[in-house]
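Please check the following.

. . .
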Amino acid sequence: MKTSTFQPDQSHLAYSVGITLDRFIKLKQSDFPFASGELSQLLRDIALAAKIVNRETNRAGLANIGGAFGQTNVQGEEQQKLDVIANIRFMRALSKGGEVCAIVSEEEDAVVDLQNNSGKYVVAIDPLDGSSNIDVNISIGTIFSIYRRKSPIGSPILLEDIMQPGSEQVAAGYVLYGSSTMLVYTTGFGVNGFTYENSLGEFFLSHPDIQAPKSGTIYSINEGLQLEWEKGIADFVQSCKEMKMQSRYIGSLVADFHRNLLKGGIYLYPSTLKNPSGKLRLMYEANALAFIIEQAGGKASEGKQRILDIQPKNLHQRTPLIIGSVELVEQVERMMNPMETLVTS
């Protein structure tokens, strides 16, 4: 009887697709012995909703779901049709899984109490950041934070379950819908990125153990607001120009952050005369990205204080955000606080 053996030199004919997100989550489940699998399932629920939103964004131009919805959200911003669609998709996924007791969403005025007193987690989410860019085919994203509730399981949710500082996050991540769709997340044990393979319907590990460069040559800021910046920000941007750094600003937070995370650089959305408290939302934008960047070796600040140390006072609280490579963020902090620098030096 003839037998054959696998020929190693033929392996180049079929490329390896790598490890799936689902398998990766299962392998890492031992990092959370207290979670009994709920956190792992919650991450799968988010990934499923992201796949559906990815499908919707890819067909937006054909299905007439681009453009404005005709209403404004609690931020006073005009809702896009895809804002509403993404919010519905993530709400359904998070409510049906059974792991979540409450949701804070950019598109909802108040806390969404799921009446699931056995749920262990609270999720804060921006379902579709930068959705106004969809009409011009620019990358957009989803940002999420996951917190473990403080009140006893089985009891109604309390305010303390919702209003937690970013340092209490057990997981956070974002989905970037662009030339390829990526899910990047951390559970406090490093940052890993997964790229969506459309033909297989799976996220595959493509960027293991992401490390943000200590410095970089890219700065990202809306220079149209230059006349409204405080002196320290203006001085920093001027120094970037003198060093011939590259100005790269997409205006889609997830896309700008993702580029700088991988290549090194800094993203700034400082306070302005019009928005003295900043414009980005603390609970479902800044906190998640701050957790990710710190896990990757970078830094996130509001100018004087670490983002993750800020105690939120309301659901839609805004904050300045300076985030990216640690050396660049610390340079901004020194220029914004020259007197403190003199005292400590």
In short: The chain has a mean pLDDT of 89. Residues 38-58 form the longest helix (21 residues). The chain has two domains: 21-207, 218-344. The first strand starts at residue 68 and ends at 72.
